[in-house]
Amino acid sequence: MNIKETDKKYIAGTYGRFDLALVRGKGSLAYDENGKEYIDLGTGIAVNAFGIGDEEWKKAVEEQLDAIPHASNLYFTEPCARLAQMLCEKTGMSKVFFGNSGAEANECAIKAARKWGLDNKGEGYSTIITLRNSFHGRTVTTLAATGQDSFHTDFGPFTQGFVYADADDAADIEKLADENKCCAVMMELVQGEGGIHVLSKEYVSKVLEIAKEKNLLVVIDEVQTGNGRTGELYAFMNYGFKPDIFTTAKGLGGGLPIGACVFGERTADVLTAGSHGSTFGGNPAACAGACSILSRIDGTLLDGVRKKSEYIKSQLENAKGVENISGMGLMLGVKPVRPKAEIIDACMKNGVLVLGAKDKIRLLPALNIPDDLLEKGIAVLRDALADY
Ligand SMILES: *Cc1c(COP(=O)(O)O)cnc(C)c1O
């Protein structure tokens, strides 16, 4: 079969795919139809946390496939209970709702925040403040939550009740909190799709103060930043606070779809029987794989993430063709002098897969990428950046 032709004919045209069909992979290496090898610095957008088809993850998933791959949420199953326990014990949070994607995790957080507003502040306290340049998903509601005008066309009417603050301007949040009946502020601590923009500690601590003063929930979108990506288990741990709700997906699944909305003490019991649900949510096979991923994101692994991050920064900071580098841990953005598309193409031609985010090259390598592959991959990127 001609994969590319068939795809173009039968798949809805929502993706501007790269001219590359991947047919297999292992760890940080992927292979195309012709057997050409690529060093993977994008991990399927931060999903393959331990690389492609990680053996321990695969074993956990396969054992669960043999036991019971799906049961529905009408019954208890062990892997989702175990994963929820692990998520809570590792973060000090209280309860978890499982969906199948980042957008669904955020939908759940939005529903819970609004219900909390109704229960605790009264009728109409449903507005959620999000940040400009954020990204929260592709459903009609999470598009509305996304603070980018370019996402607010074509599919209206959008869900009401979102207002947008300038990232890094705490006074803007204060103003919006005064002007609207708000229940929550929701943000990514490192804006991913928005171009790897790291929120400063000073700004975040001011937002936390305002949230406390105005009685707003703090909802952190850890869909991309979560699960070891930023050098801590969750990005909020870099900032030294605990949110009221956080959401995660991508890397948690290690290669299978999963999303989690994690509730702290103030929000643990907001959602009650019948108020939310998902047929596939908490799927046993996905959860068994996620347990394997989460159980291995320990101090040693996170030390490695931070070391690899330092290595990449040391190689690319002040390198020829680089304007600047941003990010945290193994979620890094490199602003090239040349247009990013040219760099991505040059890397691909030379056997390295990197991503884009706004005008930047985005690097999301596996948390355990072997140093020799990382060095080779970064050398190829460095050459591509310098060639202009
Ligand atoms: C990817 C992403 C989402 C959406 O996740 P899906 O699994 O594609 O629905 C939401 N928020 C952030 C921060 C993301 O990076």
Structure commentary:
It contains 13 helices and 17 strands. It has 388 residues and is of the alpha/beta class. Helix 7 runs parallel beside helix 8 and helix 11 runs parallel beside helix 13 (371-386). The longest helix has 19 residues, at 102-120. Residues 101-103, 106, 135-137, 188, 192-193, 221, 223-224, 249-250 line the site of pyridoxal-5'-phosphate. The site of pyridoxal-5'-phosphate has 15 residues, from helix 5.
Layout of secondary structure:
Blueprint: H1 3-10, E1 22-26, E2 29-32, E3 37-40, H2 43-46, H3 55-67, H4 78-91, E4 95-99, H5 102-120, E5 127-131, H6 140-145, E6 162-165, H7 170-179, E7 182-187, E8 190-191, E9 197-198, H8 201-214, E10 217-221, H9 236-239, E11 245-248, E12 259-263, H10 284-295, H11 299-316, E13 322-328, E14 331-336, H12 340-349, E15 352-353, E16 355-357, E17 360-363, H13 371-386
Parallel strand pairs: 3-15, 5-6, 5-7, 7-10, 10-11
Antiparallel strand pairs: 1-2, 2-3, 4-12, 8-9, 11-12, 13-14, 14-17, 16-17
Helix pairs in contact: 3-10, 4-10, 7-8, 11-13, 12-13
Bound molecules: pyridoxal-5'-phosphate (PLP).
What's this model, at a glance?
It contains 13 helices and 17 strands. It has about 400 residues and is α/β, with parallel strands linked by helices.
